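Input record (one chain):
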Amino acid sequence: SIDDTPTDDPPQFIAYFEKYSKQCLVSALKLLIDQSKNFSPMSLTNDTTIKSIALKPYRIILTLLDKPEIGSRIIDHVLLNLIQCLRQQCHKILLGTSNNKYENSDINLSDSSNLVKAAKDCKAAWDCVKQANLLFSAFEATYLWDYLCSLFERSCSSNSSITNQSCTELCQVIDFLLEIISTEQYKQIQTRYLPKLLRSICGTISLHIQTVSVHDLTHALRICNKILSRIEPETEQADKRRPTLRRSKYSSSSSSKPEDDSNIIESCVQTFHQFLARFLNQRVLPSPNVVVPYFKRLTLPHNRIQRNEISSRRRTIITNKLVQYFYGTAEQTGITVERHDRSDICRCFQLATSLLVEFSCLPKFSESQQESHRESDVETSSDSADSSLPEWLQALLVCATFVSDFDIQTSAISTLLDLVALTRQLSSSSTDSGADETNVESGRYQVSQHGSVSVMIVPSLLPAHVRFLVEQSTFFQDVAIILWNYMLSDKPFYHRRTVELYQQLQKVSSPPGICDDVIGISLVHSDKRIALDAQRKFALIWHISRGYLSTSSSQCMLDRPLFVMISCLGGSDCR
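The corresponding structure, as predicted from the sequence alone:
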C-alpha cells in the first residue's frame, strides 16, 4: 500500500479525508472507470470522442496523484479496476471501430499478446496504453509489482472476497501488464521486480496448494513461465550502467531494500522446488504418504559391489522385473490416478515439469570466484544423496516409475532425462575447461566469463543426485522396462512417444546399453510368452524408428537387438 506516504498535511486533515471523503471519492472514480469501460465505440463519431471518454479516468487519477494527501490514499483501491478497464477498452476499440478487421479474423484478441500487438496498429487503443504507462511511471518502481504480489496473495487466500478477483483473473491482469510495460527498457524490472513477483506467485500457490483449483493453478503456472522468460539475471555493477526507473514520491510503504540479484534468483528456484514437492504430494499422488514406501522400491542396498558384478546384477534385475511388469504382480502394482479432473491435472503437471527444466537452465551472474563459492545448496550434500535427495525429486521419481498414467509418467520420465542430460553436459564442459572441482561438485557450472563477471548455471539435479540414480537405484532399468511395456498399447500415439523417450534414454542412461539389454533379454527370455511378445514389440519399434527417425543414435540403439531378433527368427520357437 502507499496509503502511508508521508505528507505535510496536518493530522486533522488526513483524519477528515479518511472519514468523510475517501470512500465517496473512491466510489466516484470506480463509477467513472466503469463508464469508460462500458462505452460503445460504434455509437461515437470519431477517434477524438473515443479518446476523450477512454482517457478521462487516467487523466483524473494522474491529477489526483499530484496531490499526495489524496492520490496516495486512493490509488490502491482503484488501480486494479483501471488496469482491467484498459484491457477491456483496447478490446472494445479494436472490435468496435468502423474499420474493424478482427471480428471475423482468426486472431484471438482474448490473448494479451495478440491484443497488445493489434492495439499498436490502432491509434485510439494505443493512446490508452500510453496514457496508462504515463500513470504507471508516476509510481515508485517497486510499487506496481508489490501491489500485484499483494493482490495475488489475497486472491488465492480463503478470504479472496477482499479483491473480488479470482487467481485466473489476476493472472490475466499480470499477463496484460507484461505486454504493455517495456520490461526490456529498464533492467531493474527484469533483474529485481519480476523475480520477486515470480517468487511470490510460486510461494502463494504452494501455501494454498490444497484450496486453489486446478484451473487457477494452470493459469498461475503459465504466467510463471511467461515471467521466467522475461527475467534476466544481472550483476549490480552492470545494473549501474543501465537506465533507471524514475522514482516518485508515490512509493510502496512495504518496499524492502534491494536484494542481491543472485539471491533473488536462487530464492525463486528454491520456492518453486517447494511448490513442486507440495503439488506432486498433494494434488497428483493420492497421498503424501505413498512417496516413501514407493521410493524405497527404487533404491538398492547401500553396500557397494565390485565393478565386475554390476553387469550381472543389472541383468538379474532386468530379468526379474520383466516378469513382474509382464504379469502385473503385486510387487509392481502402480499408483492409479483416478479423478474427475485427471486431464486438467495432467496439463498442470506438464506445465510444472516444463518450468522445472526452465529453472534448471536459468543463468546466474557472479562477480568473482569468491562470490560463486559463497552460496551453498541447502537441499543436498554431495556425498549423502541417498539420505538427502530433495523431496521434489523423490516425488518426481515415484511419478516416473510407479504412476499408472501414460501422460504423467512419460512427462516425468522426459523431465528427469532432460535434467540428467543437462547436468552431465555441464559437468563434461566444466571438466574439459578445467573448472574448479568444488564448484562442479556442488552443481555450479561456469558457462562463460566476461572480465570479472562469470555466468553460472546451477541445475536442479546435482552430480550427487545423478550418482544416486546410477549407483543406488534401479531408475534407468525401470524406465527402460516401463517404456518397453508401453509398446503393447493399442494407442499409436503411445508407440511414437515411447520410441522418442527410448532415444532420449539411450543417450543418458548409465551404464550405457540398458535399452539394448531390456530388448535383448526380452527376446531370449526363458518365458516363451515374454519372448514372443518381445518380438512383436521390437518389430513395431523397428518400423517406427525406420519411418521417422534416421539419426545415427536411433540405428545404434537397434543394432544389437536386431541381431538377436534375427537369431530368434531362425529358431524353432518362432516358426
